[in-house]
């Protein structure tokens, strides 16, 4: 076995022309999968309480940090990071879909401008406060875990979630907080997924850096289209672009918080190899599974990027 891939699993061969990604399975976290039955419906996946931050019983984040720091950080041309993905809390669009049903939501409500750049509901704000409490307790018990930066989707619900859940980071004027176009929810048709202009976002959220090179290409939302919904292939391409941007831009940073959306987080997990390794090691390949992260769920993924020359 090549030393560059020893101990790693689940490469995504088409991740990039120049790079591949691999996931390092860690014993501290559960599989994030939903089993699909013969009728195409999904069974409930594993979701641990906010108080556990998806940490399996019998483990601590202190143990995880200690093992992570012992991983080979500087093998030639290898980069290792932990991404802490957080899906936004419940938004008004999530509430509407639950109220009207998915079919009516897709055909009618999602096309209504009243859901433009959907904000959090009161329930969503309470979810986020619970997440804040859990993260505060975790950091008090694990002072060795220090997040290096936070990256948020430019959609309001994701920024609001980050503001509440990671309030101490927003209160710290020197802590780096960025936004990136590529970690939006699926683009097109749904008004809830249309973003505000960068000019307006800068006024609303002055603590967030919307000007980092490579993060945005236009002030207005030129990607959103009222008639077409983004394909899975298009989502994968922007997920790859985002992950490569993280590895290129933040070479020395190892612990990256990302507050985003269900589909883009699921896609990042697949690209990083987390889903494949979970299927292979936890449940095998006998059944069909899909990945889905719940509102306000906290998902750590340890990943490696290496040059595509193996």
From TrEMBL:
Gene Ontology CC, one term: cytoplasm
Pfam families hit by this protein: His_Phos_1
One term of GO molecular function: phosphatase activity
Gene3D superfamilies: Phosphoglycerate mutase-like (3.40.50.1240)
Entry protein name: Phosphoglycerate mutase-like protein
Organism: Adineta steineri
Lineage: Eukaryota, Metazoa, Spiralia, Gnathifera, Rotifera
């Amino acid at each position: 076995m090549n030393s560059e891939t020893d101990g790693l699993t689940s490469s995504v061969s088409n991740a990039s022309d120049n790079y591949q990604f691999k996931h390092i399975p860690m014993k501290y976290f559960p599989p994030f999968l939903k089993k699909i039955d013969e009728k195409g419906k999904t069974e409930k996946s594993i979701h641990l309480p906010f108080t556990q931050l998806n940490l399996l019983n019998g483990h601590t984040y202190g143990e995880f940090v200690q093992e992570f720091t012992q991983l080979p950080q500087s093998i030639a041309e290898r980069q290792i990071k932990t991404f802490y993905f957080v899906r936004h809390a419940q938004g008004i669009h999530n509430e509407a879909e639950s109220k009207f049903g998915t079919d009516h939501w897709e055909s009618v409500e999602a096309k209504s401008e009243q859901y433009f750049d959907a904000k959090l509901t009161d329930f969503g704000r309470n979810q986020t406060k619970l997440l804040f409490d859990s993260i505060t307790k975790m950091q008090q018990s694990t002072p060795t875990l220090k997040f290096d930066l936070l990256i948020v989707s430019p959609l309001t619900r994701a920024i609001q979630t980050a503001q509440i859940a990671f309030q101490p980071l927003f209160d710290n004027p020197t802590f780096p907080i960025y936004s990136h176009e590529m970690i939006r929810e699926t683009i097109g048709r749904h008004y809830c997924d249309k973003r505000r202009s960068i000019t307006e976002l800068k006024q609303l959220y002055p603590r967030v850096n919307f000007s980092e090179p490579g993060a945005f290409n236009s002030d207005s939302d030129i990607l959103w289209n009222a008639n077409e919904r983004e394909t899975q292939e298009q989502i994968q391409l922007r997920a790859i672009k985002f992950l490569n941007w993280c590895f290129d831009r933040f070479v020395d940073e190892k612990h990256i918080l990302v507050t985003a959306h269900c589909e883009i987080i699921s896609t990042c997990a697949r690209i990083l190899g987390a889903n494949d390794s979970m299927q292979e090691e936890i449940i095998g390949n006998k059944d069909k599974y899909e990945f889905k992260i719940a509102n306000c769920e906290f998902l750590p993924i340890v990943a490696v990027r290496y040059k595509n020359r193996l």
